[in-house]
Amino acid sequence: MEYTKEQITELKDSILFKKRNVYEVLDEAEIEKMEAFCKGYVKYLDASKTEREAVNEGIALAIAKGFREYHFGDAVKAGDKLYFNNRGKELLLFIIGSENLENGIRISAAHIDSPRIDLKQHPLYEDAGMAFFKTHYYGGIKKYQWTATPLAIHGTVMKSDGTVVDIVVGEDDSDPVFYIDDLLPHLGRGQSSRPLGEAIQGEQLNILIGSRPLNTDGEIKLAIMKLLNEKYGIVEGDFMSAELSVVPAFKARDIGFDRSLIGGYGHDDRVCAYPALAAILEKEAPVHTLMAILADKEEVGSGGNTGMKCSVFIDLIASLSKTLGANEYLVRFNSKCLSADVNAAYDPNFGDVYEARNSSFINKGVVMTKYTGSGGKSGTSDASAEFVGYVRNMFDKAGIVWQTGELGKVDAGGGGTVAVYIAEKNIDVVDLGVPVLSMHAPYEVIAKADIYMAYKAFSVFCD
To answer: pTM of the prediction?
Structure first.
């Protein structure tokens, strides 16, 4: 049988899958909405360089939308909009739906921590006429990327008298910034001959913080500590009860002549946290009970009492179930979750580590990642065909531009998300997020079209 060109085209459209470019479906009015949404995201990103700041920003946005704080055991009813602040570093928001809670909760779960550099508990020292902070890096970074770049210090200090001091230095244009030295190329022949991952050692990530001595005796460490004491009222011992982080001092900016991309620190995973947050904040009187989880510690394994391994979200489900007379086991069994995390966007400059047929691409929409892990899917929850089909059909009916992706070739690497810890609680879950270029770098890149489509996807899921 001979097929006409028209028949071939019809056949392709009906039985072959083709990734679409988001701009194929956005009209000018929708593009304006996308730009407005991305402006809100950039504002959130710049204000949320640590998980504590992300929680504070999230709470402020939630209160403005009528959410109130929840405490375990509080009476709740349909329509209530609530948030739970877990120790200042994890935020859970939920809206009680009109249907029976035993029909399940629609959960979106992202993380709000990002790779960075933390100060050690005894950080301050001087050497060769300079003052430094000793550090320990947090999460998976390429250490060389953090040298010779402007840095800011963010964090919280618990003083010996029990008072708390918040510190942010390096973000305002009038602030000083901080710096990690690198070796000049004239003397760097030995450094350059080492493997990329060994060129800078962890113990070399020392933060340059000053050089002016207090007196003719050359007391530089004391001079720095005097400045900190005068400004913040802290003493050296207070560093032992502090959480101080070093992050890039850059602001998020549009990238490209067409301004279609956004460069910034912490896209992983705030580029998913913000759409999930925005989606639940816009809902009023939903049928399903909704929950958005903005968790800490994903970049270091999701441990601790603010990470996804903590039982707090299960405790919340149990508390709500008891209050509303529901069986918590049925609630979890019937719940559905989108684990909101990024994927690695295909980069043609490093195409040898990607498998293009199964990679995500910039401007091709939100990414569904059926499984993560490394090698032989180690560490993945691997979403079921039924749940992937449920999400796929939901997106197709709503006109969401979506794609699938993996984190590189099978033996080239891999990674994990919070999905596996949610699946362990007997909840259907699949990863959904935004493709990112230069993931875990101090300055990552995403496409505006993809984050906007992620927002629309989470909004549809909430419906």
So the answer is: 0.95
